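Progress narrative, Year 2. Work on LysR family transcriptional regulator from Alcaligenes faecalis advanced from sequence curation to structure prediction during this period.
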Amino acid sequence: MDTIQSLRVFREIVAAGSFAAAAQRLDMSAPMVSKHLANLEKQLGARLLHRSSRRLSLTELGQTYFDYCLQALDTLERGQQALSGSEHQPQGVLRVTAPVWFANRKVAQLLQDYQTRFPEVTLDMSLSNHKVDLVAEGFDLALRVMREPAPHQIARLICPTPFHLVASPEFVARHGMPRNCAEVMRLPAISPSYLQQPSFEFIGPDGPESLRLNPFMRSDNTNLTYYSALGGAGLAYLPEWLVMDDLDSGRLVRLLPDYTEELQQLHAVYASRRYLTPKVRSFIDFLLEELAEPAK
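Result:
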């Protein structure tokens, strides 16, 4: 039998003063009330109530157990009320892991807008280019860029995230503007060290081409790569969200502008489809609302 329900029945028996009155309060048969009490006494190996034809009274052990029973049920019911109250109002700390390049103006504005809408949620953002174990490291959600999730991952597609080959005007003045992937591969580049032998697919005027960067430096930090490219040290393959202001202002220029880059997608990855908490669901829904491309 359900022990928690047996505790509730025990509480009602004591409060009502009889099995019949408890049964009426609980909309339950009197024999079932007796079974629940017997279930508790069997588990405890002790009698909880003195029974007579006229009245019921708690045994000494029964009184001690009844006090703990009230505390336990009160704690459970307050917990249920807290969950019920947060069903439509996300709250608590939301731990999110995301790429280092999420430290940019666009993402900062998104996070500000989310917290304006959901002020009871505290965002705990951890930026790393290395994949983390969500469960082992206690994260609620991962934001990851990939062409498609692995079969074992539970992921929700959020939006496309374009990447561009970029360099500073000074770099282009020194080395010239490359005309194709072969010429790009002869130029010094800053390459991500967290990808093994990274190569990228482009579609040019003459069809698909593969590009493997020629690194003079490798880094696991996208922001260091960004500042190195901005300073003219080398070319880099960087996310549009990170470089869009620089492309607009001319501080960076896009290489191979007539080429189309491989499509990358931002996904929300989480550990379980069951019991998705309101704070996690609200964050995913918010990103979809703000970032998903409109249907054509």
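The longest helix spans residues 60-85. DSSP finds eleven helices and 15 strands in the chain.
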